[in-house]
């Protein structure tokens, strides 16, 4: 029998329904597993195991009465700390934040709570979510469960690590430039960054998305069915759509698939990463897809201007802090923010226009294809103590040239494991689709999940 902490959402629900397992047993087992990992992994913030056990007991009573509250009743979940949950402070990864309890659940937290999911804890993130790393001035250093010397990625650092380590089947992250896809890539799990507005966000912002982070595509699909329900607080959200998230795999036969191996900027693609992505593309071709190359479309100037835009945005917030609070921000992030202090108004306008230029370039390059395959990251994961793969505040975004454009273009993009380096580091395949084709990306990901073959066993507590 599968260990309780390793069970998928579908397995848990089937066992609850058959009364072979109770939510109390499942939640207790996941908590026991977390307690073996967490002293060294450090993926969690504000764990509430007492509250989780109470919620599990209430769920158990509903299942015994044959009246589950919703589609996720009794299923354990963690939520990234910048997604507000009522009564829990939202530090945004930084020691500079005043810890004020959140007044209400954010839309995503409200949907999973309504569906009966059992919230175990929040998960860690770096300062202001502006690093692809587990480094933070507020949280302890979050590590990668495949090897504690490795980085889990970010900014959904704790969520990615928790999913791979078996902290239950469901985890929620956020993404504005790669922040669910990069940790999914480096932890060997699955995620979807949905089309902008598919999952309501509060507050919404250019490119900001919330996505499921899970070990299987099916678990993410079940979570998306709840997350995609409407919430008026997101004034950029899409109209409700009757999406059958449970739809089966999409066969590649007859599809036109793009293979994007040169982003046009950023770090060069590592040889082992390239080989793994090419091997994945061959599976699509062998299944009857027509695979053709995608030309580079993100120039170094585009990447630089996006960096400047985010620096200026962050400098506005950073400069409003007292000197004492500024001193409490992670030094790397503080230095990065200061890089936006003296940017001219003309350059800021160019950076805003660059958002639309990236959007146009991404949609133009991908339009001829049904789906586009690429690396998620050009490089495998790196040292846990580093802030970025370059560890250079002057070159902080060199690893997001494959992921960030799809935030600007609002296209759905998934990360799914497609191999491992010789050291055993997971390698993520990005699958991007046309805007609004979230279901298609999920279905083709389901196909690849079956076609890719056996994966390494999940890491065990170290």
Structure notes:
It contains 14 helices and 11 strands. It is of the alpha/beta class and 462 residues long. The protein has 2 domains: 224 residues, Amidase signature (AS) enzymes (Alpha-Beta Complex); 159 residues, Amidase signature (AS) enzymes (Alpha-Beta Complex). α2 runs antiparallel to α3, α9 packs across α11 and α9 crosses α12. The relative contact order is 0.14.
Topology:
Elements: H1 9-17, H2 23-41, E1 44-45, H3 49-64, E2 76-80, H4 107-114, E3 118-123, H5 157-165, E4 170-175, H6 181-187, E5 190-193, E6 209-214, H7 217-227, E7 256-259, H8 271-286, E8 290-293, H9 300-319, H10 323-328, H11 331-338, H12 345-366, E9 371-375, H13 404-408, E10 413-420, E11 426-433, H14 438-451
Parallel strand pairs: 2-3, 2-4, 7-8, 7-9
Antiparallel strand pairs: 1-3, 4-6, 5-6, 5-10, 9-11, 10-11
CATH top-level class of the largest domain: Alpha Beta
Secondary structural class: alpha/beta
The number of strands is 11
Task: Record the strand order, biggest sheet.
Answer: 1-3-2-4-6-5-10-11-9-7-8
Q: CATH superfamily membership of the largest domain, which one? A: Amidase signature (AS) domain
Q: Overall pLDDT, averaged?
A: 98
Q: What is the count of DSSP helices, taking H or I runs of 4+ residues?
A: 14
| Computed Rg | 21 Å
Query: Strand fraction band?
Result: 5-15%
N-to-C order of helices and strands: HHEHEHEHEHEEHEHEHHHHEHEEH
Give the overall silhouette: globular
Number of domains: 2
**Overall CATH architecture of the largest domain:** Alpha-Beta Complex
CATH names the topology of the largest domain as: Amidase signature (AS) enzymes
Helix percent reads 25-40%
